[in-house]
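agent> Task received from the user: take the single chain below, predict its 3D structure, and emit structure tokens. No templates, no multimer pairing.
agent> Plan: (1) validate residues, (2) run structure prediction, (3) serialize to tokens, (4) report one or two observations.
agent> Step 1 OK, no nonstandard residues flagged.
tool_call: predict_structure(input=
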Amino acid sequence: MSYMDRDWGAKAGGGGVASDIQQKVDRRERLRQLALQTVDLQKDPYFMKNHLGSYECKLCLTLHNNEGNYLAHTQGKRHQQNLARRAAKEARDNPTLPQANKRSIKPRKTVKIGKPGYRVTKQMDPETSQRSLLFEIDYPEIEDTLQPRHRFMSAYEQRVEAPEKEWQYLLFAAEPYETIGFKIPNQEIDKNPTKFFTSWDGENKVFTLQLYFKGADSGRRSHAPSLMQPGAPQARRRREAATGDGVCAPAWVRECDRGCVDVIVDAGGG
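)
tool_result: status=success, residues=270
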């Protein structure tokens, strides 16, 4: 018997040495079996079963007889190249914007020492008939490196009482004092530098803010109803309980739920 037709190096009856083609087929089959156990085809966006019962790759537009054949295709060079092209196209069409470096700011835990004393004075410009308010806030125990700050707040931002569109709030804050707020008419503020200014007296520790309501006819326009006591003086004063001097302002004063003083100041009338 001649054994010249069998592969070189194989024993008789051993089936011969596998060729390169047979090795690739066996390798692809082993990869297919492994992929079937680890890959969920339902999550593959390019896997589709058509009406004929065969499977399609929507990325490469190829047909496959079974799931194993499709999985073998996904490991091939053509599918991988198409994936790379699709990723490059998406990156070109949707460039990622640089993200801002967000630093987590932890709130300061400062022990509050109470509310500051303040003085509120109502004035009127004799030339323009504009109503004016002068706020003087005393911060004798303010931290050395800090300066008081202020901001205007809409009635719809606060959560202390039901919002009223006729009013707005002016807040003052400085550590270690509690924040205090003044409820003033919701009229446009004149931001002219000669009509609106702030000042911090570092020696006497007094923060001053003066504002004018815009419009020469502000005195004749309709304004929020006055909540001042009848016959109350123009200058409203309030002092801290610890100072022991002066008397509490006769203006309507209420302690807010979050520790700020709510003083209604009416710029119109009287």
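agent> Step 4: summary for the user.
The CA atoms of residues 110 and 157 lie 24 Å apart.
agent> Done.
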